[in-house]
Amino acid sequence: MLVIYHCHGGAHASVVCAAVHLGLLPADRVPTADELWAVRWFGREEPADHGRIRCMGVDSRGTKVCVLGRRNVFRVLRRAVEVVAREMGVWAPGEVLFVDTLPCANWYMRVGALLSRAAGLRRLGRPLVVHGTRKAYPELVALVRRTLAGMEGRPEGG
């Protein structure tokens, strides 16, 4: 099985959810700013990475956990992935779980990301992103818990 956490930029909400899923970030408390920055790809996605599925690891069940920055084209991207996989004979319904993390992103995260990336004001944007991520953290953890609960009953490793 493959779980793909996705959001607009693929640098904050999706990365945090994947890290919680994999046990790289705690589920029982809000992490510090340093803990967030220590997570691979947190705040580090570049525009050239959009549309690229990046694997963050494999969970204890053998499920690959990935992140995706999909901008505003998720429906098209998902359909393309499904069609190509079907044509190659490797698509099995229910084997790929797409989890939209964008509803958990608050305005601090959105404005901070915009300031950091589009305006190049990282010294202003990054603290906003971290503040917003820490504020949204309980929601992000709840999304991961719902995702894991939805995976219950599926066979190990797929």
Structure description:
45% of the residues lie in helices and 15% in strands. With 158 residues, it is α/β, with parallel strands linked by helices. It has one domain. It has a 4-stranded mixed beta sheet, with helices on one face. Helix 1 (13-21) crosses helix 5 and helix 4 packs across helix 5. The radius of gyration is 15 Å and the shape is globular. It starts with a strand and ends in a 7-residue tail after the last helix. The model has no long low-confidence stretch (mean pLDDT 84).
Instruction: Provide the helix percentage.
Output: 40-55%
Question: Structural class, please?
Answer: alpha/beta
Uncertain parts: none
Q: Helix segment count?
A: 5
Largest sheet: 4 strands, mixed
Beta-strand proportion: 5-15%
Strand order, main sheet: write it out.
Answer: 2-3-1-4
Mean pLDDT: 84
What is the 3D form? globular
Number of domains: 1
Question: Any idea what the radius of gyration is?
Answer: 15 Å
User: How many angstroms does the end-to-end distance come to?
Assistant: 4 Å
Q: Would you count the extended β strands for me? A: 4
The H-and-E topology, N to C, reads as EHHEEHEHH
Which helices and strands occur, and which strands form pairs?
Layout lengths: L1 E6 L5 H9 L11 H6 L14 E6 L5 E6 L4 H15 L7 E5 L6 H11 L4 H30 L7
Parallel strand pairs: 1-3, 1-4
Antiparallel strand pairs: 2-3
Summarize the structure.
This protein is α/β, with parallel strands linked by helices. It is 45% helix and 15% strand.
Characteristics:
single chain; alpha/beta; 4 strands; 45% helix
